[in-house]
From TrEMBL:
It catalyses: an aldehyde + NAD(+) + H2O = a carboxylate + NADH + 2 H(+). It comes from Mycobacterium paratuberculosis. This is aldehyde dehydrogenase (NAD(+)). The keyword Oxidoreductase applies. Belongs to the aldehyde dehydrogenase family. It is an enzyme of class 1 (oxidoreductase). Keywords: Oxidoreductase. Gene3D superfamilies: Aldehyde Dehydrogenase, Chain A, domain 1, Aldehyde Dehydrogenase, Chain A, domain 2. Its EC number is 1.2.1.3. The lineage of its organism: Bacteria, Bacillati, Actinomycetota, Actinomycetes, Mycobacteriales. The active site is at 157. One of its GO terms (molecular function) is aldehyde dehydrogenase (NAD+) activity. InterPro entries: Ald_DH/histidinol_DH, Ald_DH_C, Ald_DH_CS_CYS, Ald_DH_CS_GLU, Ald_DH_N, Aldehyde_DH_dom.
C-alpha cells in the first residue's frame, strides 16, 4: 500500500490469495496453476529460438563447439558457428561432416575469419536471435553491448581460473594439482586453476615442491611424445 499506492481491499485480496495457496504445498498440481483450490489451464510451448550464433574459444575448440551446436540443432534452430581464428580446423571438419550427413543447407554455417569483424556482425545483426559465447569477461561485456539494441538472448560463459583450495589433510596433493593445471594446456584454459590456496604454515613447503616440479617439466612441440607441456598458442 505504501509503495504502490494500492487500495486496502486489493492488498487484502492479494494476501488472501497467497494464504490460500500455502496449504496446497504438497499438491501434485504446481502452485502457479492452483488458485483458491481450482486448477487453472496452463500451457507451456517449447519452440526454436531461431538463428543462434555460437562463438567458441581456441582451447577445447571441438568440445566447446559440440556443447553449443548439438543442443541448438536438436531444438530446431539454425546455427552460425564462429570458431576462434586460431583454431578453425575442427569446426570446418565438423561442418563438412554435417553436410555429408545430409544436414539441410543453411541449418549450420561455419564462419572463419582472421579478425573480429564477422563476430561483431553476428552479435549485432537483427537476423540473429541468440548468441552463445565462451571466452574472456572483456569480450563478453562487448557482446552484451552489441546484442542489447536488438534484445537478443545471450548465454555467456566467461573467465575462470578459480583457485585450488587444499585443506591440511590434502596439501600433499597440491603439487600434482599444480602440474595438471599448467602442463595440460600450458595454462591456457578457464579450468586451469593456476592459483593455490594452502594453509599458511604449509606455504613455504608447497612453494618449494611446486617450484621443483616446474623445473622438471619438459617443454616441446606436440609431436614430441616425451614433452610434458606444449607451446602457448600465440605471442599475445
Amino acid at each position: 500500500m505504501t509503495q504502490l499506492g494500492a487500495g486496502a481491499a486489493i492488498a487484502r485480496q492479494t494476501i488472501d490469495l497467497y494464504l490460500s495457496m500455502s496449504h496446497e504445498e504438497a499438491s501434485p498440481v504446481p502452485v502457479d496453476d492452483l488458485v483458491r483450490g481450482r486448477v487453472a489451464l496452463s500451457v507451456r510451448r517449447h519452440e526454436p529460438v531461431g538463428v543462434v550464433t555460437a562463438i567458441t574459444p581456441y582451447n577445447a575448440a571441438l568440445i566447446m563447439g559440440f556443447q553449443k551446436l548439438i543442443p541448438a540443432l536438436m531444438a530446431g534452430n539454425s546455427v552460425i558457428l564462429r570458431p576462434s581464428p586460431l583454431t578453425p580446423i575442427s569446426s570446418l571438419i565438423f561442418g563438412a561432416a554435417a553436410d555429408a550427413a545430409g544436414l539441410p543447407p543453411g541449418v549450420l554455417s561455419v564462419v572463419v575469419e582472421s579478425g573480429i569483424a564477422g563476430a561483431e556482425l553476428l552479435t549485432s545483426d537483427p537476423s540473429v536471435d541468440m548468441v552463445s559465447f565462451t571466452g574472456s569477461t572483456l569480450a563478453g561485456r562487448k557482446i552484451l553491448a552489441q546484442a542489447a539494441p536488438t534484445v537478443k538472448r545471450v548465454s555467456l560463459e566467461l573467465g575462470g581460473k578459480s583457485a585450488q583450495i587444499y585443506l591440511p589433510d590434502a596439501v600433499h596433493r597440491a603439487v600434482g594439482g599444480a602440474f595438471v593445471a599448467v602442463a595440460s594446456t600450458a595454462g591456457q584454459a578457464c579450468v586451469a586453476a593456476t592459483r593455490l590456496l594452502v594453509p599458511q604454515d604449509k606455504k613455504a613447503e608447497v612453494l618449494d615442491a611446486v617450484s621443483a616440479m616446474y623445473q622438471q617439466i619438459k617443454v616441446g612441440p606436440p609431436s614430441d611424445e616425451t614433452a610434458m607441456m606444449g607451446p602457448v598458442i600465440s605471442a599475445a
